[in-house]
Amino acid sequence: MDTDHLQIFASVCRNGSLSAAARELKLDPSRVSRVIQTLEAELGVPLFQRTTRSVVLTDAGRIYQTEIAVALEALSTARARVADVQQVPAGELRISCPTSYGLLNVVPWLADFQARYPQITLDLRLTDAPPDLGPDGVDVAIALGPLRDSDAVASILAEMDTHLCASPAYLERYGTPTHPQEVAGHAALLLDMPGFDSTLRFRQRSADPWQEVPLRAVLRTSNALALRECALAGCGVTLQAGWIVDPDLRAGLLVDLFPGWTVRAANFSNPAMWLLHPARPYISQKIRVFIDFARDRLVR
Protein backbone atom coordinates (compact mmCIF):
# COMPACT_ATOMS: atom_id res chain seq x y z
CA MET A 1 0.00 0.00 0.00
CA ASP A 2 1.38 3.41 -0.98
CA THR A 3 1.54 5.52 2.19
CA ASP A 4 0.94 8.66 0.11
CA HIS A 5 -2.43 7.17 -0.78
CA LEU A 6 -3.25 6.82 2.92
CA GLN A 7 -2.31 10.45 3.55
CA ILE A 8 -4.57 11.55 0.68
CA PHE A 9 -7.45 9.42 1.99
CA ALA A 10 -6.98 10.91 5.49
CA SER A 11 -7.04 14.44 4.04
CA VAL A 12 -10.30 13.75 2.17
CA CYS A 13 -11.82 12.43 5.42
CA ARG A 14 -10.67 15.48 7.33
CA ASN A 15 -11.88 18.00 4.74
CA GLY A 16 -15.03 16.23 3.55
CA SER A 17 -14.16 17.16 -0.02
CA LEU A 18 -11.84 15.94 -2.77
CA SER A 19 -11.12 19.47 -3.94
CA ALA A 20 -10.41 20.72 -0.40
CA ALA A 21 -8.01 17.83 0.15
CA ALA A 22 -6.29 18.68 -3.13
CA ARG A 23 -5.83 22.29 -1.99
CA GLU A 24 -4.50 21.21 1.40
CA LEU A 25 -1.99 18.78 -0.13
CA LYS A 26 -1.22 21.03 -3.12
CA LEU A 27 -2.18 18.29 -5.58
CA ASP A 28 -4.20 18.22 -8.76
CA PRO A 29 -7.82 17.29 -7.91
CA SER A 30 -7.73 14.58 -10.56
CA ARG A 31 -4.88 12.85 -8.71
CA VAL A 32 -6.85 12.86 -5.47
CA SER A 33 -9.85 11.37 -7.27
CA ARG A 34 -7.71 8.66 -8.89
CA VAL A 35 -6.14 7.73 -5.55
CA ILE A 36 -9.55 7.28 -3.92
CA GLN A 37 -10.74 5.18 -6.86
CA THR A 38 -7.58 3.05 -6.61
CA LEU A 39 -8.11 2.46 -2.88
CA GLU A 40 -11.74 1.50 -3.43
CA ALA A 41 -10.75 -0.90 -6.22
CA GLU A 42 -8.07 -2.52 -4.04
CA LEU A 43 -10.43 -2.90 -1.07
CA GLY A 44 -13.44 -3.88 -3.15
CA VAL A 45 -15.80 -1.51 -1.32
CA PRO A 46 -16.82 2.14 -1.69
CA LEU A 47 -15.19 4.35 0.94
CA PHE A 48 -17.24 7.49 0.25
CA GLN A 49 -20.72 8.43 -0.82
CA ARG A 50 -20.27 11.26 -3.30
CA THR A 51 -22.50 14.28 -3.82
CA THR A 52 -21.98 17.29 -6.06
CA ARG A 53 -20.43 19.27 -3.20
CA SER A 54 -18.95 16.82 -0.72
CA VAL A 55 -18.09 13.25 0.12
CA VAL A 56 -19.32 11.30 3.15
CA LEU A 57 -17.66 8.21 4.59
CA THR A 58 -19.47 4.91 4.18
CA ASP A 59 -19.47 2.40 7.05
CA ALA A 60 -16.50 0.69 5.43
CA GLY A 61 -14.80 4.07 5.01
CA ARG A 62 -15.18 4.86 8.71
CA ILE A 63 -13.63 1.52 9.67
CA TYR A 64 -10.76 2.11 7.25
CA GLN A 65 -10.23 5.66 8.57
CA THR A 66 -9.94 4.38 12.15
CA GLU A 67 -7.48 1.63 11.26
CA ILE A 68 -5.17 3.71 9.08
CA ALA A 69 -4.96 6.43 11.75
CA VAL A 70 -2.97 3.95 13.84
CA ALA A 71 -0.71 3.15 10.89
CA LEU A 72 -0.12 6.83 10.05
CA GLU A 73 0.70 7.61 13.68
CA ALA A 74 3.21 4.73 13.75
CA LEU A 75 4.74 5.96 10.50
CA SER A 76 5.04 9.50 11.89
CA THR A 77 6.75 8.16 15.02
CA ALA A 78 9.16 6.07 12.97
CA ARG A 79 10.11 9.03 10.81
CA ALA A 80 10.66 11.22 13.87
CA ARG A 81 12.91 8.63 15.52
CA VAL A 82 14.98 8.16 12.37
CA ALA A 83 15.36 11.92 11.88
CA ASP A 84 16.47 12.35 15.49
CA VAL A 85 19.27 9.82 15.05
CA GLN A 86 21.14 12.66 13.33
CA GLN A 87 20.92 14.68 16.59
CA VAL A 88 19.96 17.74 14.55
CA PRO A 89 16.37 19.03 14.80
CA ALA A 90 15.05 19.05 11.24
CA GLY A 91 11.93 18.82 9.11
CA GLU A 92 8.67 20.72 8.79
CA LEU A 93 7.11 21.95 12.04
CA ARG A 94 3.41 22.82 11.89
CA ILE A 95 2.36 25.41 14.48
CA SER A 96 -1.09 26.81 15.28
CA CYS A 97 -1.50 30.08 17.15
CA PRO A 98 -4.29 32.63 17.77
CA THR A 99 -3.96 35.43 15.22
CA SER A 100 -3.47 38.46 17.51
CA TYR A 101 -1.28 36.65 20.02
CA GLY A 102 0.86 35.20 17.25
CA LEU A 103 1.41 38.54 15.53
CA LEU A 104 2.42 40.29 18.75
CA ASN A 105 4.23 37.58 20.69
CA VAL A 106 5.39 34.76 18.40
CA VAL A 107 6.24 36.23 15.00
CA PRO A 108 8.85 38.66 16.47
CA TRP A 109 11.14 35.81 17.60
CA LEU A 110 10.72 33.35 14.74
CA ALA A 111 13.85 34.72 13.03
CA ASP A 112 15.88 33.89 16.15
CA PHE A 113 14.41 30.39 16.21
CA GLN A 114 15.24 29.80 12.55
CA ALA A 115 18.76 31.10 13.07
CA ARG A 116 19.28 28.59 15.85
CA TYR A 117 17.57 25.70 14.03
CA PRO A 118 18.09 26.32 10.31
CA GLN A 119 17.08 22.78 9.31
CA ILE A 120 13.54 23.22 10.69
CA THR A 121 10.97 24.57 8.23
CA LEU A 122 8.07 26.40 9.88
CA ASP A 123 4.42 26.20 8.82
CA LEU A 124 2.80 28.85 11.04
CA ARG A 125 -1.00 28.87 10.97
CA LEU A 126 -2.41 32.04 12.51
CA THR A 127 -6.02 31.18 13.24
CA ASP A 128 -8.58 31.72 15.97
CA ALA A 129 -10.17 28.33 15.28
CA PRO A 130 -9.51 25.52 17.79
CA PRO A 131 -6.22 23.79 16.93
CA ASP A 132 -6.29 20.43 15.16
CA LEU A 133 -3.83 18.17 16.98
CA GLY A 134 -4.98 14.97 15.32
CA PRO A 135 -2.71 12.61 13.37
CA ASP A 136 -2.73 14.92 10.34
CA GLY A 137 -2.98 18.20 12.22
CA VAL A 138 -0.40 20.55 13.70
CA ASP A 139 2.60 19.43 15.74
CA VAL A 140 2.31 22.08 18.44
CA ALA A 141 -0.26 24.76 19.27
CA ILE A 142 -0.59 27.86 21.38
CA ALA A 143 -4.18 28.27 22.52
CA LEU A 144 -6.34 30.61 24.55
CA GLY A 145 -8.21 28.74 27.30
CA PRO A 146 -10.48 27.34 28.53
CA LEU A 147 -9.49 24.23 26.63
CA ARG A 148 -11.80 21.75 24.99
CA ASP A 149 -11.64 18.15 26.15
CA SER A 150 -8.60 16.73 24.42
CA ASP A 151 -5.98 14.03 24.63
CA ALA A 152 -3.31 16.64 23.97
CA VAL A 153 -0.56 17.37 26.48
CA ALA A 154 -1.25 20.89 27.82
CA SER A 155 0.80 23.24 29.97
CA ILE A 156 0.28 26.89 30.90
CA LEU A 157 2.46 29.43 29.14
CA ALA A 158 1.07 32.43 30.97
CA GLU A 159 -1.83 33.49 33.14
CA MET A 160 -3.72 36.18 31.27
CA ASP A 161 -4.64 39.44 33.00
CA THR A 162 -7.51 41.33 31.42
CA HIS A 163 -8.55 44.99 31.53
CA LEU A 164 -11.82 46.71 30.73
CA CYS A 165 -10.65 49.86 29.02
CA ALA A 166 -11.64 52.83 26.86
CA SER A 167 -9.95 55.87 25.35
CA PRO A 168 -9.82 59.21 27.20
CA ALA A 169 -11.80 60.78 24.33
CA TYR A 170 -14.62 58.26 24.71
CA LEU A 171 -14.76 58.76 28.49
CA GLU A 172 -14.75 62.55 28.13
CA ARG A 173 -17.72 62.32 25.79
CA TYR A 174 -19.79 59.65 27.55
CA GLY A 175 -18.53 59.69 31.12
CA THR A 176 -16.42 57.27 33.17
CA PRO A 177 -18.34 54.45 34.89
CA THR A 178 -17.66 54.36 38.64
CA HIS A 179 -19.26 50.95 39.30
CA PRO A 180 -19.37 47.80 37.11
CA GLN A 181 -23.16 47.94 36.78
CA GLU A 182 -22.83 51.30 35.02
CA VAL A 183 -20.95 49.60 32.16
CA ALA A 184 -24.29 48.20 30.95
CA GLY A 185 -25.17 51.64 29.57
CA HIS A 186 -21.96 52.06 27.55
CA ALA A 187 -21.11 51.05 23.98
CA ALA A 188 -19.31 47.69 24.11
CA LEU A 189 -16.74 46.35 21.65
CA LEU A 190 -16.88 42.56 21.86
CA LEU A 191 -14.66 39.69 20.78
CA ASP A 192 -16.69 37.32 18.62
CA MET A 193 -15.16 34.01 19.68
CA PRO A 194 -16.26 30.92 21.66
CA GLY A 195 -16.24 31.68 25.38
CA PHE A 196 -17.05 35.37 24.91
CA ASP A 197 -20.58 36.70 24.99
CA SER A 198 -22.49 39.85 25.93
CA THR A 199 -21.86 39.50 29.66
CA LEU A 200 -18.91 40.46 31.86
CA ARG A 201 -18.13 39.21 35.35
CA PHE A 202 -16.62 41.45 38.05
CA ARG A 203 -15.30 40.94 41.57
CA GLN A 204 -12.98 42.91 43.88
CA ARG A 205 -11.66 40.05 46.03
CA SER A 206 -11.22 36.36 45.27
CA ALA A 207 -13.72 35.48 48.02
CA ASP A 208 -16.41 37.74 46.59
CA PRO A 209 -19.18 36.37 44.37
CA TRP A 210 -19.00 37.36 40.72
CA GLN A 211 -21.23 40.23 39.62
CA GLU A 212 -22.60 39.75 36.11
CA VAL A 213 -23.15 42.77 33.90
CA PRO A 214 -24.91 42.58 30.49
CA LEU A 215 -23.34 44.64 27.72
CA ARG A 216 -24.78 46.72 24.88
CA ALA A 217 -22.72 45.59 21.90
CA VAL A 218 -22.11 48.12 19.15
CA LEU A 219 -19.37 46.12 17.41
CA ARG A 220 -18.25 42.51 17.29
CA THR A 221 -15.14 41.11 15.61
CA SER A 222 -13.08 37.94 15.83
CA ASN A 223 -9.79 39.87 15.96
CA ALA A 224 -8.55 41.35 19.24
CA LEU A 225 -6.18 43.78 17.52
CA ALA A 226 -9.11 45.23 15.58
CA LEU A 227 -10.95 45.76 18.87
CA ARG A 228 -7.91 47.59 20.28
CA GLU A 229 -7.86 49.92 17.27
CA CYS A 230 -11.57 50.63 17.66
CA ALA A 231 -11.10 51.36 21.35
CA LEU A 232 -8.20 53.72 20.60
CA ALA A 233 -10.46 55.51 18.10
CA GLY A 234 -13.07 56.11 20.82
CA CYS A 235 -15.72 53.65 19.68
CA GLY A 236 -16.48 52.19 23.10
CA VAL A 237 -15.29 50.05 26.02
CA THR A 238 -13.59 46.72 25.47
CA LEU A 239 -12.15 43.85 27.49
CA GLN A 240 -8.56 43.23 26.43
CA ALA A 241 -5.63 41.07 27.48
CA GLY A 242 -2.69 42.83 29.08
CA TRP A 243 -0.35 41.57 26.38
CA ILE A 244 -2.32 43.67 23.89
CA VAL A 245 -3.08 46.90 25.79
CA ASP A 246 -0.43 47.23 28.54
CA PRO A 247 1.65 49.65 26.39
CA ASP A 248 -1.47 51.73 25.65
CA LEU A 249 -2.40 51.85 29.35
CA ARG A 250 1.12 52.98 30.30
CA ALA A 251 1.06 55.65 27.58
CA GLY A 252 -2.36 56.94 28.61
CA LEU A 253 -3.88 56.08 25.24
CA LEU A 254 -6.36 53.81 27.02
CA VAL A 255 -7.73 53.92 30.56
CA ASP A 256 -8.24 50.87 32.78
CA LEU A 257 -11.78 51.49 34.08
CA PHE A 258 -11.61 49.18 37.10
CA PRO A 259 -7.97 48.57 38.13
CA GLY A 260 -9.06 47.35 41.56
CA TRP A 261 -11.38 44.70 40.13
CA THR A 262 -10.93 41.37 38.40
CA VAL A 263 -12.87 41.45 35.12
CA ARG A 264 -13.54 38.38 33.02
CA ALA A 265 -15.57 37.32 30.02
CA ALA A 266 -18.51 35.22 31.16
CA ASN A 267 -16.94 31.82 30.38
CA PHE A 268 -13.32 32.70 31.19
CA SER A 269 -13.09 32.68 35.00
CA ASN A 270 -9.36 31.79 34.84
CA PRO A 271 -8.00 32.65 31.37
CA ALA A 272 -4.57 31.51 30.30
CA MET A 273 -2.42 30.87 27.26
CA TRP A 274 -1.67 27.18 26.80
CA LEU A 275 1.02 25.25 24.97
CA LEU A 276 -0.28 22.02 23.45
CA HIS A 277 1.19 19.07 21.62
CA PRO A 278 -0.21 15.64 20.76
CA ALA A 279 0.13 12.87 23.33
CA ARG A 280 2.35 10.71 21.16
CA PRO A 281 4.61 7.83 22.23
CA TYR A 282 7.59 9.78 20.92
CA ILE A 283 8.00 13.55 20.69
CA SER A 284 10.47 14.55 17.98
CA GLN A 285 13.37 16.92 18.54
CA LYS A 286 11.82 19.62 16.38
CA ILE A 287 8.79 19.74 18.69
CA ARG A 288 10.88 19.62 21.86
CA VAL A 289 13.19 22.46 20.84
CA PHE A 290 10.26 24.65 19.78
CA ILE A 291 8.51 24.07 23.11
CA ASP A 292 11.68 24.97 25.02
CA PHE A 293 12.23 28.07 22.85
CA ALA A 294 8.61 29.19 23.22
CA ARG A 295 8.72 28.77 26.99
CA ASP A 296 11.88 30.84 27.18
CA ARG A 297 10.29 33.67 25.19
CA LEU A 298 6.66 33.53 26.34
CA VAL A 299 6.45 32.36 29.95
CA ARG A 300 5.58 35.25 32.26
Summarize the structure.
By secondary structure, this protein is of the alpha/beta class. The protein has helices at residues 3-15, 18-25, 29-43, 59-84, 99-106, 110-116, 168-174, 224-232, 242-251, 285-298; strands at residues 48-50, 55-57, 91-97, 120-126, 140-144, 153-159, 162-166, 187-191, 199-203, 211-214, 216-221, 237-241, 255-256, 262-265, 272-277. The protein is elongated.
Report helical residue fraction: 25-40%
**How many individual β-strands?**
15
Q: In what order do the strands lie side by side in the largest sheet? A: 4-3-5-15-6
How confident is the prediction overall: mean pLDDT? 87
Individual helix count: 10
Report the major sheet.
Answer: 5 strands, mixed
Low-confidence stretches: none
- Indicate the structural class: alpha/beta
Distance between the termini: 48 Å
Radius of gyration: 24 Å
- Strand percent estimate: 15-25%
Shape: elongated
Which series of helices and strands comes N to C?
HHHEEHEHHEEEEHEEEEHEHEEEH
How would you characterize this protein structure?
The chain is of the alpha/beta class and 300 residues long. 39% of the residues lie in helices and 25% in strands. It has ten helices and 15 strands. It has helices at 3-15, 18-25, 29-43, 59-84, 99-106, 110-116, 168-174, 224-232, 242-251, 285-298, and strands at residues 48-50, 55-57, 91-97, 120-126, 140-144, 153-159, 162-166, 187-191, 199-203, 211-214, 216-221, 237-241, 255-256, 262-265, 272-277. The strands form four sheets. A five-stranded mixed β-sheet has the order 4-3-5-15-6. Strands 11-8-12-7-13 form a five-stranded mixed β-sheet. The chain has a three-stranded antiparallel β-sheet with strand order 10-9-14, with no helix packed on it. A hairpin with a 7-residue loop joins strand 9 and strand 10. It is elongated and about 70 Å long. The relative contact order is 0.15. The mean pLDDT is 87.
